[in-house]
Each structure stands twice: as C-alpha cells, then as structure tokens.
C-alpha cells in the first residue's frame, strides 16, 4: 500500500520518478492535520474567482507574443493584452495543443519535456445511506496482486462534509492508466466487490449506488493527466523554468 500511496501522491509510476528529486517539494508542505472542506475544494476557487470576468467555452489554440504584447486566439476571437499568464495543465503543453508564435524558447520546451505529468483517477459513488463507519475519513484496501496495487486501494468518505453518503475510490499508478479504457459499469462493479469483501463479513449489507462518476483525466483534452511530478532526468528547477517570462 505504501508504494501505491507514493504513486498516488506523485500521480506517476515509481519507475518514472526521479530518485534524487521526487520529493523535492516536501520542505514546503504545510504542517498540521489534513481535512476535508465542507462543500468541496471548489469553494476556494469560487472565492478567488469572485468579481473576476471569466469567459467559458473558449478553447485557446494559438498564443502570439512579442515585445508589443500578446494575442490569445480562441476560434475566430482574438483577445489582446500587455501580457498573458498561461496556467494550462502541463499535459496540454506536452501535447502541443496550443501553438505559440514564436515557438517557446528551447530551455522552456526542454523543461516541459523533462517534467512528468501523471495520472490519478477516481470513482465517486453516492449511496442510499452510509454503511461504513461514520468516524472514518479514509480506509484502504490491499490487493493480493502487487501489479494491481493501485486499483481502488484507498477510499475517501465525504459523508460528513458533502451532505450525503458519498464515497470515493482512488485509482493510482499503472491501474490508473488501465482504468482509462475500463467501462464505467465494470469499474463500479469492481469497487462494489471490494466493499462487499470488506463489509459483508461483518454482516453489513453494501447497497447499490444511486449515482456514480468515473474520472478520465488522461483522455480529457483540457488536461491529459492529473498533476505533475519530478520524472527521471528532471529536477525542481524545471518548475522555475516553466514560470519564466518570455517575450
């Protein structure tokens, strides 16, 4: 489970992580206990976005930049400014979904290539009632097969903060990649089998979920993955390179 947890924390296969720098951000971790926010982490984003004009359904495909400013092009619309802060996921930059004119400096392209952008998927399940222990925020599942160590290995309970009996199963490592092509019904069936294996021996019935959602971050054209990691050959300096101004 420890190996699966590392692959979850880094959204990447252990074999792809830099042995020297995989944990380079540990010194910046905040102290104290972890907690769930009532209403979800989206509350933070909503607060930050208050009074900020946001345009939806505008897919940017080209960014022109130079000493006289920048043009951000989405379809037939052109947005002009003195500068642009590009915060698209690293997976989008790796995929080349946005064309930069002129091309980004080689130093920045190399940094984009070196850093890893991994995958973590989830299955969210809303049940008719809470059948697990109410005082549990998380609980785990160990697989008999080491090659499937990241398959639904960790469960998050949001029952106390989401306003309903919500349970989320995590899929990390190699299992997260296989999950991308797994039919949602098969995924939910596997999760339920695991939950029944945990609770039915205790005499607790596991009901069918009312609603389920399976993420597919790897195939999402606006992400192509979940979050970054320091891959073999990369270092924390590559994050600074990505943040450097150009133009």
From TrEMBL:
InterPro entries: Amino_oxidase, FAD/NAD-bd_sf, Flavin_monoamine_oxidase. Residues 4-244 form the Amine oxidase domain. The keyword Transferase does not apply. Keywords: Membrane, Transmembrane, Transmembrane helix. It comes from the Eukaryota. SUPFAM superfamilies: FAD-linked reductases, C-terminal domain, FAD/NAD(P)-binding domain. GO terms for molecular function: oxidoreductase activity. Coiled coil: none annotated. The keyword Chloroplast does not apply. PANTHER family: FLAVIN MONOAMINE OXIDASE, PROTEIN FLOWERING LOCUS D. Belongs to the flavin monoamine oxidase family. This is FLOWERING LOCUS D. It comes from Pisum sativum. The gene is FLD.
